[in-house]
Specification:
4-stranded parallel β-sheet; Transcription Regulator spoIIAA; globular; about 20% strand; about 90 residues; alpha/beta
């Protein structure tokens, strides 16, 4: 919650089980992040591996999203009461 008592959506996407991601999915992540930020929250990516990590690097999105090496690290960084989604 923010200082006014409103819920600030902090969404964590667990990418650890994801073996592939395409440009359509990257676009969806971008739109969800924009909506979360408009609401005062954020979208965080956790544990991208292999080709998913490589695509985030190649597209430059690794610097746009908040990316963490593990789900536990992402939860710790976002603070209390995050909403986590496992992709895969």
């Amino acid at each position: 919650m923010d200082q006014a008592g409103y819920f600030c959506p902090r969404i964590i996407i667990d990418l650890s089980a994801l073996e592939y991601i395409d440009c359509c999915a990257l676009g969806v992540l971008g739109r969800v992040r924009a909506q979360a930020r408009q609401a005062g929250g954020d979208l965080v990516l956790a544990a991208p591996r292999g080709p998913v990590q490589r695509l985030l690097d190649l597209t430059g999105l690794i610097g746009v999203f908040s990316v963490h090496t593990s789900l536990a690290q992402a939860v710790q960084t976002t603070g209390s009461f995050p909403f986590a989604v496992t992709a895969g």
